[in-house]
């Protein structure tokens, strides 16, 4: 059987945006949910929403990046909240029936932090201003350098550092930690 190499997507198409952002979004959503297969579903839903709701050309830009991360983030947080509610209902049902409580393999058994803490962090992130949240996500979740972030969002490296410092202080305060910087 002869295999044909798929042509590289032309710029400004949904396929090009998918090729650019899919892996990054999958990793990001998997970190939030702790479940790679759920991450695939959420990222797929994110791109379906993009195809349905985006107006204008599909141009790789900071606005596109921010929009995709916000939608994926929102869908992932909704999934985590739903899982927490379902797990609580399941536990209550077990107690009512007098069944032995068997620990549920939440999040594929791979998460090192509790779903409640993940939810608290996600809620704290939502309290940040859009620019602050974007810088935190790019630095912490994407692992970009100040220089890479500054190029992506169009600010100087010192502005990126200041925004990140301020956002981290706000997150620490929101999560009950020390505010000293």
What would you note in describing this structure?
- The protein is 69% helix and 0% strand.
- It contains seven helices and no strands.
- The longest helix has 36 residues, at 62-97.
Largest sheet features: none
> Could you spell the SSE succession in H and E letters?
HHHHHHH
Number of strands: 0
Oligomer classification: single chain
Measured between the Cα atoms of the first and last residue, the distance is 62 Å
Layout of secondary structure:
Layout: H1 14-33, H2 36-53, H3 62-97, H4 115-127, H5 130-141, H6 146-153, H7 157-174
Helix pairs in contact: 1-2, 1-3, 2-3, 3-4, 5-7, 6-7
Short overview:
The chain has 181 residues and is mostly helical. It has helices spanning 14-33, 36-53, 62-97, 115-127, 130-141, 146-153, 157-174.
List keywords for this structure.
Rna Polymerase Sigma Factor, Chain: A, Arc Repressor Mutant, subunit A, mainly alpha, 181 residues, 2 domains, 7 helices
């Amino acid at each position: 059987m002869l295999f044909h190499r798929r042509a590289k997507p032309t710029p400004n198409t949904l396929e090009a945006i998918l090729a650019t952002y899919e892996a990054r979004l999958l990793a990001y959503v998997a970190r939030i949910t702790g479940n790679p297969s759920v991450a695939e579903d959420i990222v797929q839903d994110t791109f379906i929403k993009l195809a349905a709701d985006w107006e204008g050309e599909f141009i790789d830009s900071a606005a596109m990046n921010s929009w995709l991360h916000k939608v994926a983030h929102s869908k992932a947080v909704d999934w985590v909240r739903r899982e927490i509610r379902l797990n609580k209902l399941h536990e209550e049902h077990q107690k009512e029936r007098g069944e032995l409580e068997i620990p549920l393999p939440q999040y594929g058994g791979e998460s090192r932090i509790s779903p409640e803490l993940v939810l608290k962090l996600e809620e704290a992130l939502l309290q940040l201003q859009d620019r602050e949240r974007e810088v935190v996500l790019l630095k912490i979740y994407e692992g970009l350098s100040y220089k890479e972030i500054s190029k992506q969002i169009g600010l100087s490296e010192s502005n990126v550092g200041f925004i990140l410092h301020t956002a981290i202080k706000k997150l620490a305060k929101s999560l009950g930690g020390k505010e000293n910087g």
